[in-house]
Amino acid sequence: MNDFLPAPDAVSADLWERLAHTDKPVVLYGMGNGADKILAALKRHGVEAADVFASDGFVRGHAFHGKTVLTYAEVAAKYEDFIVLLSFGSSLPEVLARFDALDAERELYAPDVPVAEGSTLFTRQFYRENYDKFRAAYDLLCDEESKRIFGELVRYKLTGKLEYLRAATSAPDCEASILNFAHYETMVDAGAYNGDTARKFIAACPHAKTIYAIEPDRRSYKKLTAYAEEETAAKVLPFRFCAWSEKGDTTFSAEGNRNSATKAGGSDTVPLDTVDSLGVPADYIKYDVEGAEREALLGSRETILHRRPDLLVSAYHRSEDLFDLPLLLHGQFPFYELRLRRFPYVPAWDINLYATVPSIDKGKYAFRR
After folding, report:
1. Which residue ranges does the chain devote to CATH 3.40.50.720?
2. How far apart are the first and last CA of the chain?
3. What are phi and psi for residue 226, nearest 5 degrees?
4. Are strands 248-253 and 261-262 parallel, antiparallel or unpaired?
5. Which among 203, 213, 366 is positioned nearest to 288, based on CA atoms?
6. pLDDT (tens digit, 9 = 90+) per residue, 227-251?
7. What is the C-alpha to C-alpha distance for residues 258 and 94, in angstroms, rounded to an integer?
8. Reading across the β-sheet that carries 67-70, which strands appear in turn?
9. Taking the model in full, what pTM does it have?
10. Residues of the chain with CATH 3.40.50.150
C-alpha cells in the first residue's frame, strides 16, 4: 500500500509563512466569520490584508474591518498582481466553479482556519509537533482511499492550495459501500439542525423507524420540531440539548445555522446531556456537533459498547480532529474499522470519519434486538 502521508518537513514553508514573506498585496475574497478568523491569523503572523472584495451582488458600498468592500474588477484595476485568500465556504457547484476559475487566474489560497473556538491553527510547527499522532491515526485507517484523502488533506491544510483539496474529494455515492442502509432502523442524529440528515436517513433506509434528533440551537430546534410533526415515514423525536460527555449546562452561540456551538459568553443557555441518557437501541449514530465530537463520543460509550452501531463522525471542526478522533475511537472501541471520506466543499469541511463493525462480525454485534 502506498504511503500518502507527507513527511514532517515535506514543505519548506506553510501558507502563513508564505504570506509573511510575500511582497504581493494580500486580498480577502469574502466577509463574515471565516474572514474574521483569517484576519486574526494574518495579524498573528504580522500580515495586513490590503483589501477585501466580494462577489458583485454583495458589494453595496459598505465596509468590513474598516476597509471598503470592493468588486473583483476594482481590485484587479488597483493592483497589477495580488494574492487572493478565500474567506467564505461553499459546496454549491457554481460557487466552486468560480473558485476554480479564479484559482487558474490568480495566486489563490483557501486558508484552513478551525471552525471551533479554542482549536490550534494548522501550521508547519503544529504538524511537526504532532506528526507521531498523525502517523498513528493514518495507520489506523483500513483502506487506501482513506489514507490518500488523509494525506491530501494534510497537504491542503499546510499550503491552502485548492489542488490538494480537489484531490481529497470522494465519489458522491461512496457511503453506499461503507454504511449498511438496508439494515438501519434506529438513528441518533447528534447535531440534527433542521432535520436535513433525518430526511436523508429515511430516504436511504427502507426499514427506518425512529430518529432521535438532538439539536441545541433554539431556532434550528424550532424548525426541527416542525419537520418532526410533519414526517410520516418514520418517527422523529427531537431533543434540545448539547451532546456531551456528562450532564450539565452551557452557554451557547445561537446562530440559527450549522455554525451554532457551545461558547463562553454565548447568547443562550442549554443543557448538556449524553447520548447514553437516551437509552435507545441505535444501529447508526451521526455526530456533527461543531467541535464537541470527542465529548459526544465519550457520552455515547455505553450505547456503543452494547449496540456497536455504525458511526459517522464529523472530523473538520478542529485541527486536532484528523488525529484525535481516530485515536479516540480506536482506544475506546477497538472493534471498529475506520474510513475517511470528504465531499466537495471549500474549505476542508464535510470530512467524515466512518466507524463500522467488520462485515464478518455484523451478525454478532451490530443489530442485536
Report:
1. 14-111
2. 38
3. -65, -45
4. antiparallel
5. 213
6. 999 999 999 999 999 999 999 999 8
7. 21
8. 63-64, 67-70, 51-53, 26-29, 83-86, 107-109
9. 0.93
10. 174-365
Sign of the dihedral through C-alpha 287, 334, 284, 93? positive
- For the beta sheet containing 337-342, the strands, ordered from the edge strand earlier in sequence to the opposite edge, are 235-239, 210-214, 186-190, 284-287, 310-314, 351-356, 337-342
Amino acid at 170: S
In angstroms, rounded to a whole number, what is the distance separating the alpha carbons of residues 241 and 271?
A: 5
What is the rounded CA–CA span in Å between residue 366 and residue 360? 11
Which of these, 217, 156, 190, lies nearest to 346 by C-alpha position? Answer: 156
Q: Are 338 and 329 in contact (CB under 8 A)?
A: yes
- If DSSP codes are grouped into helix, strand and coil, which group holds residue 220? helix
pLDDT digit string (tens) for 280-310? Answer: 999 999 999 999 999 999 999 999 999 999 9
Helix 321-332 vs helix 131-140: crossing angle, to nearest 10: 50
Residues 86 and 98: beta-carbon distance below 8 Å: no
Homologous superfamily assigned to 174-365: Vaccinia Virus protein VP39 (3.40.50.150)
What letters, b where the CB count within 10 A reaches 16 and e where it falls short, cover 255-282?
A: beebebbbbeebeeebebbbbbbbebeb
- Cα dist from 215 to 36, 194, 225, 307, 334, whole Å: 26, 8, 10, 23, 29
Contact 224, 191 (CB under 8 A): no
